[in-house]
Design brief:
Layout lengths: L14 H12 L6 H4 L3 E6 L11 H14 L3 E6 L12 H18 L4 E6 L4 H12 L3 E5 L6 E3 L2 E3 L3 H11 L5 H8 L14 H11 L15 H20 L4 H4 L2 H13 L5 H11 L7 H10 L14 H6 L2 H8 L16 H6 L23 E6 L2 E8 L9 E9 L2 H7 L12 E4 L20 H5 L6 E4 L11 E3 L19 E5 L4 E4 L3 H9 L13 H9 L21
Parallel strand pairs: 1-2, 1-3, 3-4, 9-10, 10-11, 11-12
Antiparallel strand pairs: 5-6, 7-8, 8-12, 9-13, 13-14
Bound molecules: FE2/S2 (inorganic) cluster and magnesium ion.
FE2/S2 (inorganic) cluster binds next to loops.
Length: about 575
């Protein structure tokens, strides 16, 4: 039995009076003693007029509350920060750790025996799980679900892979002003998260595969009645956890669950951002995500899900083909099916309940994969001593082994000022380099890694070039793009040493990214770098905390003091 309203009472020597006060205040909302005497399930409310992805949150909260009450417990919704990709300046990543802190402390501060976190837009689920893992209170995750698809001139459209593709066509002059306006109204036709395999979908699929949410929770479209029923079922389940006192996140977020998540990330052609978030989540429970182990997973796991940007379909098609449970069945040889699920039982039970859909082609079998190896690879070399990442499933095969001349942009502002300059000295086989776009550099590691093809080359029909940066990239983007170069240039990483005209060699089969400049010369350039000083934007407040304590991409970009140390080796 949970402790309900008694939990976390401030005790100034008289616990009875503290409870008396707490009840006196909460009764102002009209609650009865019967309601207040039950185990409590807290429910995060991330509804915001600035977050259209979370537009269905009120309906999900209402359904979750119904589920909690049908199971005899007491639901209490409370607000936390909400973050939408397009409305978070300077970047949503800058705010992820703030949301994680806010969510963690509000779960800790208020009386609840279990918590339901409802999120979806890219950074929200990672933030909520980082929080829940740190508190280690029984937690059920309800993703808000993906948008349904849009249609334009007989073509199916999705945010935001097609946003990029069609905007690219507009830049190249093949789509005029009037048509691009029409398309603008059709790319996001409902509430919910981007319906391609972007970061939101990647996180929802990994979270389901880790057993943190109920089966099918990643894929049911946001506006569907089925999602409301899922929220009700999640509410019931959370009430059971509140009474039983578990399982807790630490019992679910085990090393095998993290490995399962990595298998799924490779098999779905997931977003590179998922790797940073998974690393941050693991660090909150003293598990660790090792980049080389992740790369090794990618060498044995095929891409099986045919979704944009690596494939052709959208999340609702994945759902109707059987969703994550069916994918786990196809991956059964590569997944640890004994991992527990918050639904009760293990992934073996989840797989047993998977639906077989005759004739579906969205979820392939390992015998007929989309790609025989995983979506992502980890690169190392003198340009990225602590690693870089490439989503090669969404790259141009002919560019995966490529040596070219570097064309360097020193910052986002420099990129914006020069990339479309008709006089820019650039050719299709050059390597575009962007620096000062990492966790501390930009700040907040913007999704700027998808450098635009210089307009004069785009007009000649160039669709892809090798691009290298310490930035991130939206999971909805595509191209031969090397990301998360670590350490970042702002802390003196080798990216800071590249000059226009140097040669860079990308060799994805060998997992290498190298700057072909003599070591002596690189040492001389390093010695000439200016001393790192705290920049003006980080003078005070949260920005200062962020600048001074954010870790690099290989450590999950969490604050360095949030890490949970692994238990000492026996
Ligand atoms: Fe919210 Fe894409 S903008 S998930
Ligand atoms: Mg995104």
């Amino acid at each position: 039995m949970g402790r309900g309203l008694r939990k976390g009472l401030t005790n100034y020597g008289d616990a009875g009076f503290s409870l008396f006060l707490r009840k006196a205040f909460i009764k102002a909302m009209g609650y009865s003693d019967d309601a207040l005497d039950r185990p409590i399930v807290g429910i995060t409310n991330t509804y915001s007029d600035y977050n259209p992805c979370h537009g269905n949150v009120p309906a999900l909260i209402e359904a979750a509350k119904r589920g909690v009450m049908l199971a005899g417990a007491m639901p209490m919704a409370f607000p936390t920060i909400s973050i939408h990709e397009s409305f978070a300046h300077p970047t949503s990543m800058f705010l992820r750790n703030l949301m994680a802190m806010d969510t963690e402390e509000m779960i800790r501060a208020q009386p609840m025996d279990a918590v339901i976190v409802i999120g979806g837009c890219d950074k929200t689920l990672p933030a909520q799980i980082m929080a829940a893992a740190s508190v280690d209170l029984p937690t059920v995750v309800i993703p808000v679900g993906p948008m349904v698809v849009g249609h334009h001139k007989g073509e199916v459209l999705g945010a935001c892979t097609d946003c990029r593709r069609l905007w690219g066509a507009h830049r190249a002059g093949t789509i005029d002003e009037a048509e691009i306006e029409t398309i603008n109204g059709r790319l996001a036709p409902s509430v919910g998260t981007c319906m391609v395999m972007g970061t939101a979908s990647t996180m929802a699929c990994m979270i389901e595969a880790m057993g943190l949410s109920l089966p099918m929770s990643a894929t049911i479209p946001a506006p569907h009645a089925e999602r409301i029923r899922l929220a009700e079922a999640s509410g019931r389940r959370a009430a059971e956890l509140a009474v039983a006192g578990g399982p807790r996140p630490s019992e679910i977020m085990t090393p095998r669950a993290f490995r399962n998540a990595q298998v799924v990330m490779q098999a779905i052609g997931g977003s590179t951002n998922g790797l940073i978030h998974l690393t941050a989540m693991a660090n909150r429970v003293a598990a660790r995500v090792d980049l080389d182990a992740f790369d090794a997973v990618g060498r044995e796991v095929p891409v099986l899900v045919d979704l944009k940007p690596s494939g052709d379909h959208y999340m609702e098609h994945f759902h109707h083909a059987g969703g994550v449970p069916k994918l786990l069945r196809e991956l059964a040889d590569l997944i640890d099916l004994d991992a527990p699920s918050v639904a009760g039982g293990t992934l073996r039970d989840v797989v047993a309940g998977a639906e077989e859909v005759p004739g579906q082609t969205v979820i392939r079998s390992p015998d007929h994969p989309i790609k025989p190896i995983g979506a992502m690879a980890v690169l190392r070399g003198n340009l990225a001593p602590r690693g870089a990442v490439i989503k090669h499933s969404a790259a141009t095969p002919g560019l995966l082994s490529h040596t070219g001349r570097a064309v360097v942009f020193d910052s986002l502002a420099d990129l914006a000022a020069r990339v479309d300059d008709p006089d820019l000295d650039v050719a299709a086989d050059d390597v575009l380099v962007l620096r000062n776009a990492g966790p501390k550099g930009a700040p907040g590691m913007p999704e700027a890694g998808y450098l635009p093809i210089p307009k004069k080359l785009a007009r000649q029909g160039v669709k892809d070039m090798v691009r290298v940066s310490d930035a991130r990239m939206s999971g909805t983007a595509f191209g031969t793009i090397v990301l998360h170069v670590t350490p970042e240039s702002a802390v003196g990483g080798p990216l800071a040493l590249v000059r226009t005209g140097d040669r860079i060699r990308l060799d994805v089969p060998a997992r290498r990214i190298d700057l072909l400049v003599e070591e002596d010369e690189l040492a001389a350039r390093a010695a000439a770098l200016p001393e790192a000083a705290r920049p003006d934007w980080a003078a005070r407040g949260y920005a200062r905390l962020f600048h001074d304590t954010v870790t690099q991409a290989d450590e999950g970009c969490d604050f360095d003091f949030m890490l949970r140390e692994p238990p000492p080796a026996a």
